[in-house]
């Protein structure tokens, strides 16, 4: 469980977007172009973002060129964008070490704590500078960045980076990050309480934090909460109606856990009328979305549903799953 939670944290922090800017209209683009050509580093970054996101492949090179101009002028945002573009090979040859160096320059200039946490995870994923990754995470945590606290909390819980395991400190760091409003930390904290990762199970605290995350719009949290309320697992009192409502909320946000919880509800007839076909479909679709192979009990529920279906029904359902799985959004990098 701790390893899985660590992976969730890594993916979530690495997926945090860089500085975002609204796409300019034509008139604004022309004004940006003039300012950028006059040496305005901020305009160069904004123009680079506009070119990067306009859907025209040929503009990628120009986009990265503007980031480079801003970065060379000492602009932190320009260096940040250039770093990721260079690591990904967008508009320039792919060069991970050079990209990382630009990210380092950016956070050195900006001292942005959230970016320090992101840099920590990027270095962790790269795998060639583990000590430095830990140092950036610690700096981010010391500055009060929720993502930094989350990373350091999970490191203290798992003993990552050779740090002594300290569940009490891990709980403190994660709780502080969750209280600052970080929905992913709220999700992780809820799971850890339910699974007893701090040395004790606390279903009340676990469900409370999952609910807070779900209320913040976290589809995974809503789906997990729905699953526990439907099944009564981990000592959670069954509340089928609320569980089904949360499962559907998760599904609306494309949450794999929501599809799974709803499938379980249909297979078992909990909170909804029993419907083996719909249950089999929802669970099978959830399996297609399960890049981390988290649905360990899916096979049991599928077998239970399949026992009540004919071969022709199963064939039809498989075709439906294939068709709908092809429409699913691509999983985030690293998931």
From TrEMBL:
Leader sequence segment: 1-22
The record's annotation in SMART domains points to: SEL1 (SM00671)
Say yes or no: keyword Transport present: no
User: What are the record keywords, sorted?
Assistant: Signal
Instruction: Please provide an example of a Pfam family that matches this protein in its UniProt record.
Output: Sel1
Q: Which Gene3D superfamilies match?
A: Tetratricopeptide repeat domain (1.25.40.10)
The organism's superkingdom is given as Bacteria
Task: Please report the name of this protein according to its UniProt entry.
Answer: Sel1 repeat family protein
The scientific name of the source species is Dyella telluris
